[in-house]
Amino acid sequence: MAMKPSARPEARGRRIRRTRMFPLWALLLGALVMALIGTSPYYGGTDSYVVQLIGKFLCFAIFALSIDLIWGFTGILSLGQAVYFGIGAYFVALSMKINYTLTHPTRYGGKIPDFMEWNGLTELPGFMEPLMSTPIAIIGALVVPTLLALFFGVITFKRHIYGVYCAVITLAESLILQDFIIEYQAYTGGFNGITDYGNIREPAFLWFIIAVTVAFFIIARFLTHSRIGTVLKSVRDNDVRAQFMGYNVANYRIFVFCVSAFMSAAAGAMYAAWVGIVSFLDTGPLFSVEAVVWTAVGGRATLIGPFVGAFLVRGLEFMLSGSWFADYWQFFIGALFIAVVLWIPDGIVGSIGNWLRKRRTGSVRQIREDADQRAHDQQRDWEPAGARKPGEEVV
Amino acid sequence: MAIIRRKFLKRSAATLGALAIGGAAPYVFSRNIAKAQESDTIKVGILHSLSGTIAIIETSLHNAELLAIEEINAKGGVLGKKIQPVVEDPQSLVQVFAEKAKKLLLEDRVAAVLGCYTSASRQSVLPVFEEYNGLLLYPTLYEAQECSKNCFYTGAVPNQQLDDFVPWIIETLGRKKFYMIGSNYIYPKETNREVKALLKKFGGEDVGEEYAPLGHTEFSTVINNIAGSGAEVVFSDLVGDSIVAFYKQFKQFGFTAEDLPICTPITTEQETAAMGPENAVGHYTSFNYFQTVDTPENQSFVERYKAKYGKNQVTNAVMEAAYFQTYLLAQAIEKVGSTDTDALIFEGLPGQEFKAPQGPVKIDEKNHHTHLWARIGKAREDGQFDIVWTSKDRIRPDPWVDYLYPNKDCDFTDPKVMERVKKPWREEKNRSGTIDL
Q1: Is B376 helix (H, G, I), strand (E, B) or coil?
Q2: ipTM of this predicted complex?
Q3: Which of A34, A48, A192 lies closest to B123 in CB terms?
């Protein structure tokens, strides 16, 4: 064995454990702080717009995390991830709207959603009746986007379409859905979107969003730090080599794409229930690009990065677009993006991580050696691709 | 041991720090609210997108409102206090409209909000205004069939733009066969429904109806259809970039305004400037205001607007509504002597009159909409409109026009409506003034 024995093995062991535990701890603390703010009486409970914003930002953060999984960890740049977010959101919003109008007559006095009425429908179309049941709507909101992602994943990744071409295809997917929503406005609300359907505002739902966020974070953490995660990263860094090693690169891509779509859909579903307004913009490419920017600002291929990015960028946008800065705020946001790209390409969290590691280990050379060492350690966790069990068929 | 203790100290310090931030934020926040309450200004929210897809038109509304506020303050303000505009940029995103509205109402405690442009944005903020009992003044022409307790509509509703326009086309222009083309969303659909009802009433004929997706810019098929339909006039409810593309392609196809005029309740000076005025020459627009309106109020409005925002600026109907609604609000606050929302809604604003650039306007006593003038303009070479017809008097707004909805009306003086809308929101969520006759 050519491995150089470590100078302080037990110290390294602890360090690795600490970097593993840290983000979860930070997230739990973040969740606690947010919950404290969220339920603080000074904000007037869930009536306050700050609480509303927190719930909304959490949904955005999950969405950014889902993009980080495919872009940061696997190297698939999708500009159509909002499709899955949007479909999830529309399922929930439509279901809530249909049920809401049963007890709250529209301005026309009818019992079906107002956008159906001004498009000449007199009763709920048959294919939308299942949406009256909440469980069906929730299942639809989660399953349909995942299946759609599976379908798109199969037709793109199985044909070895990735990189820029994949970005273009996902972009097209997003534009198609947008056009579809605007065109079939009798069923979707069209350009005006769906609004006024009595969104959920109990504090308990904010807790639910926080719980789901933590759950998704943990899932993402397990996924990226497992054997699958290592393969995903190798696909990102050099997919040809990964294929030579015997991995079915397409299947790994499809898998992570579906997981990401599921997360987006869940974020969209909670978003629709919490915010109470869904429009075609929530399915558009701009929204996906925004989430890519959040991820880049926070730090791609880190798990807290998307959270930091979403909260920071959206929070700054909200604060700056009011009062004195209303005319100029976009300059500040633009400057932030340029600064991130120029000086901290690893994003905020990534750069802090680099800095901490550098401070701890001293020099870049040492970091590299450390990384090599770690990679080597991890490689022993799982069998190399070449080592097959005797008798197993080699494909 | 030392290492563990240090780690423990670090972590607990970080935890305490985070908790301190979380705990302190509400106090900072509540102090802001307290400050807002004891200030000696009257806060008015301005909620128009300054960025995003509809920023161009909304910025002009924002400018017109700021101009009016500046003028009111220069004359001594309202109730001896200055009006303080609280500007928010909702970024052309409907969700942000709702959040910003909530912020303006709950944190800034504004007396009223001047804002919104699209129907989508209005519909997204209305539930917020209704729940927190705010006051919104909305300057855009829109499809009507709505009246909310918490909203005053100072833009035109279809009956004010169409009731005279359609008969005028049939009788004065002598053109009976209408081809309707519109963008595919609620406003054009509702407008065309009224046009069709009017055609039936005045002996016109509808020879075709088509809707293009919003932002659509390729109209050769549509123009071919028009050419083959035997239409004598094109009635267009296209909005935004589609207008520019349609007029240009219409001209390229060889149609002139003499052969086949385009009549529309939407195209303003803003669009004729954008498409190049030579493409619009001779086509007709029906509006309550044009920049060429010959009143002393309008001359001084245009002058002051250009002095403040630049010589090349044009004014249009929605801007004019944004401008005069600011004055109507100031007068209403002066009348009731406070910024109490219910007082403004039930006593201050109904019946309020103002000499607007388009002529004297008045808010209807019953239905929260505004009595406006009707005019028909013919586009000129310089992008302005020659006014070829003006109504004899301002026209009463009717959000539920009689010939389509004979058994509906909107009346906030009706005791049953009053009883309902004055109830707390938690007991009664219906804030509409619509009644069945």
Answers
A1: strand
A2: 0.78
A3: A192
